[in-house]
Write a structure and sequence with these properties.
The chain has helices at about 40-45, 75-80, 100-110, 115-125, 145-155, 175-190, 200-205, and strands spanning about 1-10, 15-25, 30-35, 55-60, 65, 85, 160-165, 190-195, 210-215, 220. With about 220 residues, it is of the alpha/beta class. About 35% of the residues are buried.
Length: about 220
């Protein structure tokens, strides 16, 4: 489903990804590990179509993902609905006036009927037990509450792939357990999971396949 072929990326003259080959099948749960600064976050940005290969090719479901192809608004809309990206820092992701507005934002952008937008929003509020937060502005929420809202925002789009960068960072033990169980259930439902984490316990619980990025910005699939 996801296929990277000899992908390179550099920030000006600083290499971040060096000839990355990666193949991910539908329903995989891949954990990516490696030292800080090796290019893991750059790889996530590329998978989400935020940046594009300097060299090499990226295909999703046999469609090439590039700056050119994502200029097609309908194609870009389809692709970004497929890929759910939960930022490590939830503050980067949340910008609306209330939790309810945050969750409804994606379905509204997809042009869904009003009744379906309401249903998806209610389902996601209930899924994460955050109904009482619906009218609260995101900047008044705790770190754990923000993480739940950011996940609800992504799940309201019903993505095929969920990509997470250190999803348990800064969360209390109860919220970590809730989130880990949710991610396991997400994968059991046949969805594809890509997780970057230094958390060994989380990696063991989620990982069906593992890959390691080294300090030379190369990726080795184990």
């Amino acid at each position: 489903m996801i296929d990277l072929q000899k992908v390179c990326y550099a920030y000006e003259h600083e290499v971040a990804l060096r000839y990355i080959d990666l193949h991910i099948e539908k329903g995989d749960s891949l954990v990516i590990q490696g030292p800080n600064g090796c290019g893991k976050s750059t790889l996530i940005k590329l998978l989400n179509g935020i940046i594009f290969p300097s060299e090499g090719s990226y295909f999703y479901k046999d469609h090439e993902i590039s700056e050119k192809t994502l200029k097609d608004r309908q194609f870009a809309k389809w692709f970004h609905q497929q890929m759910g990206y939960v930022f490590q820092n939830a503050d980067t992701q949340l910008f609306c006036g209330s939790a309810e507005e945050e969750i409804a934002f994606g379905p509204i952008q997809m042009g869904l009927p009003e009744a379906e937008i309401r249903q998806r929003t209610e389902d996601c509020l209930r899924l994460f037990g955050i109904e009482k937060l619906r009218e609260r502005p995101p900047y008044h929420l705790s770190g754990g509450e923000k993480r739940k809202v950011s996940l609800a925002c992504i799940l309201s789009l019903n993505p095929e792939v969920l990509i997470l960068d250190e999803p348990l960072a800064g969360l209390d033990e109860k919220t970590q357990d809730m989130l880990t169980e949710f991610l396991q259930d997400f994968h059991k439902a046949g969805k594809t999971l890509i997780t970057i984490t230094h958390n060994r316990q989380l990696a063991e619980k989620l990982g069906k396949r593992f890959a390691v990025m080294n300090e030379d910005h190369e990726l080795e699939t184990l």
